[in-house]
Amino acid sequence: MTSSDRTDNLVDLFEKSVKKHGSNKLFGTKNKAGEYQWVTYEEVSKRVDDLRAGLAAEGIGKGDAVGLIANNRTEWAIVAFATFGLGARFVPMYEAELVTTWRYIIKDSGVKLLFLSKPEVMEKFSEVRDDLPGLSKVIMIEGEGPDTMAALESKGREKPVPSVKPDTDDIAVLIYTSGTTGEPKGVLLSHGNFSSNAIDAGSCFPDLNPGDRSLSILPWAHSFGITADLFNFINIGGSIGFVGSVQTIVEDLGKAQPTFLIAVPRIFNKVYDGLWAKMNEEGGLPKKLFVMGVESAKKKRELAAEGKTSMWVNVKYNLADKIVFKKIRDTFGGKIVGAVTGSALMNPEIAYFFSDLGIPTYDCYGLTETSPAATMNHPAKNKIGTVGSAIPNVKIVIDSSVVDAGATDGEIIVYGPNVMKGYHNKPEATAAVMTPDGGFRTGDRGKLDDEGFMKVTGRIKEQYKLLNGKYVFPSSIEEEIKLLPLVANAMIFGEGKEFNICLVVPDFEVLVKQAEKSGEPAELIADESICKMISEQITQALKGDYASYEIPKKFVFLEEDFTLENGMLTQTLKLKRRVVVDKFSEQIEGSYS
Q: The sheet that has 410-415: what strands, in order across it?
C-alpha cells in the first residue's frame, strides 16, 4: 500500500474498497438449507447509502450515538458504516448480555436510536425500555412494519444523503469493556485508531489479498473482532462468512472454506485435544501413522533450523501428510493458510503442531484501548511462545518502576495512533491509565527480548501476596493448567493464605473417555481416584516452570463451569474472580481448614 492509498477514517476505508472490489463477494450467510449465500461489496454499499439517508431523516447527525444489539451479520456492518457516514458514533452491544448492562451502556453513551436484531432480543429489551427516556426510537432488523430496518432503508432511498468524511480524531465507536470488576467503561475509539490499526496490523500479512476469506467467529462488538476481522478484510477486499453457532463451526469451516482465521487459541486447543482423543480411541494403524507424522514433522523442523534435511524423515512426513494431515486441513475447509490468535497465548506444542501441518498460528497482543493490536507475530517475524513484536507505527515500553525491585519485567505501555482517546464520562479513570506523553498503561506485566519479541508475564491488578510475602500472578498459571486435556477451566486462589489452591472444572467429555468411567459430573468429581489423577497431572505440568510456592497444594473440583450465563466470565471470556470467590466461598475456606 502506498502512502496515497492510506486512509485515516473508516468511511474512506469502506468506500475505497467498494470502488476497487465492487463485484467481489463480501458477506456470506447460511440459508435455511445450510448453504452460504453471498452479497457483494456493491450490494452492501447500496444498503449503507440507503440506511445512512434513513438515519439522517430520523435526525441522526454528527456526534449522535446509534446503538445496536446483534450478533455478527450483514446488517451489523451496514448499521456501522451508515452511522460512520454521518459522523455519528456507533455503540455495539452483545445479544448475550444482561439487560441491566444494556441499560447502563445506552444511558452512559447517550444512544439516540437503537437497532435490535430479532423479536427475542426485543422481548428481553422490553424489561428496561421504560428506563431509557433519552432513547428516541427502536428499529428492528428482522420483521415487518414501520419501525424496521427495511422501512428505514426504503425511506432513505427517497432522499439520498452523501457521506461525510470524519476527521481522524472523530470518535467512531464506543466499545464497552465488560470489566472483571466494577461497571463497564466506554472506550472512545476514533476513526484514526481503527483505520491505522487495520492498515498497520494488516501490513504484517502482505500476501493477504481480495481472494482471501475469513470465517467470522469472534464478536464484532469486541475490538479484536471488529478490527482484525471486519475492517481488515474489507481493507484488503476479502470476504467474510458468518459462523452459524459455536456448535456448527466445523461444518461451517467446510462450507465457507476460509483461507485465514481470526480466532482464539481455545479453538485450536479443542481440535488438538480432539485429535489425540480420537487417535487414542482408535489405536492401531491410524494412531501409528498420526504419531509418525507428528514426530517426523518435528524432526523435519528441527533439521531445517540447522540447515539440514533427511530423506527418510521427509518420506515419513510426506506419507503422514497425504494420509493424516490432509484430513485435518480438510476439517478447516481445505484452504486455510494461517490464523491470528489472541486473548491468550497459544501453547507452543500446539502452535508447532499446526504449523507443521501447514496451518501456522500467529499470537498477538492488545487491548480494547489499543484498537486492539499492539504486538503481533507474522510470517516474516514469528517466535512461538511470544506475542510478537510491535506492529508498524506502534512502540512498546516496559516500565519496571511499578514492580518489585529486581524484577526482570514491568508494566507494558503502548504508544501509537491506535491508543484510545479516553474513557467516556470517566476523566479520572482516563488520567489513571494515560501517561503525560500519550502512552497507555495496560496494567499487564511483560518483558521484551533482544529481538523485540514480547512475553506477557501477568496482570498487575490480579497479582496477590501469599502469607509468606511472595507475589503470585494467577493468570499465567491458570493458562498452563487449562492446556491439560482433562481440564476445562481453572482458577488459582491464595491471597493472604499460606498456600495456593486451585478450583478445577474438569472436561467431563474427555474425562469419561480417558478414565473409562460413566456418571454425572457430580458423581465424577466425587471419585477420589479421578481427583487424584487430575491433581497429579496439574502438579506435574507446573513443575519446573513455577516456584514451589506458586504450585497449588490443594484442589477444589467443580461440576459447574465458569460461563457468560452464570456471570463468572466477561464477554471476552476473562474470569470474574470476585464472583467466583463469592460463589464458591465455602469450598475455598474449607480447603484451608
A: 395-399, 410-415, 440-448, 454-459
Residue 155's contacts (CB-CB under 8 Å, 6 or more residues apart) are 53, 54, 57
What DSSP string runs through 250-308?
HHHHHHH--SEEEE-HHHHHHHHHHHHHHHHHH-HHHHHHHHHHHHHHHHHHHHHHTT-
538 and 440 inside one domain: no
For residue 231, give its domain range: 10-259
Instruction: Please tell me the distance from the alpha carbon of residue 48 to that of residue 157, in angstroms, as a whole number.
Output: 11
Q: Minimal CA–CA distance to 37: which of 256, 187, 227?
A: 256
Give the span between the Cα atoms of 464 and 274, in whole angstroms: 35
Please check whether residues 211 and 237 belong to one and the same domain. Answer: yes
3-class DSSP state for residue 192? helix
Strand partners for 477? none
pLDDT tens digits, one per residue of 392-430: 999 999 999 887 777 789 999 999 999 999 999 999 999
Cell 524432526 found at = 299
Report the phi/psi class of residue 35: left, alpha or beta, with left for phi > 0 and alpha for psi in -120 to 50: beta
Q: Are residues 457 and 513 in the same domain?
A: no
Give residue-wise pLDDT tens across range 340-361: 999 878 888 889 999 998 899 9
The C-alpha atoms of residue 571 and residue 178 are separated, in whole angstroms, by: 6
The arrangement of strands across the sheet holding 373-376 comes to 260-263, 338-341, 361-366, 373-376, 389-390
Cell of 111: 444512544
Cα angle for residues 88, 215, 122 (degrees, 5° grid):
50
Compute the average pLDDT of residues 444-463: 89
Q: In the structure grid, which three cell numbers stand for residue 389, read together?
A: 513484536
My answer on whether 62 and 118 are in the same domain is yes
Pairing of strands 554-557, 389-390: unpaired
Angle between helices 528-542 and 474-482 (to 10 degrees): 120
Rounded to an integer, the average pLDDT of 315-344 is 90
The answer to whether residue 385 scores a pLDDT higher than 70 is: yes
Q: How far is Cα 199 from Cα 186, in angstroms, rounded to an integer? A: 24
Tell me whether residue 346 is in a domain.
no
Does 363 map to a domain? no
Residues 582 and 589 sit within 8 Å (Cβ to Cβ): no
Residues 423, 486 within the same domain:
no
Using CA atoms, how far apart are residues 334 and 253, in angstroms rounded to an integer? Answer: 9
Burial 193-205 (b: 16+ CB within 10 A, else e): bbbbbbbbbbbbb
In a domain, 140, yes or no: yes
Residue that wins the pLDDT comparison between 496 and 109: 109
> What is the pLDDT averaged over residues 114-120?
97
Among candidate residues 101, 27, 17, 18, the one with its CA nearest the CA of residue 67:
101
Q: What is the mean pLDDT of residues 206-234?
A: 96
Contact indicator for 354, 268 with CB cutoff of 8 Å: yes
Is residue 535 located within the same domain as residue 521?
yes
Last residue of a domain, one of 242, 259, 276: 259
Burial class (CB in 10 A: 0-12, 13-18, 19+), 331: middle
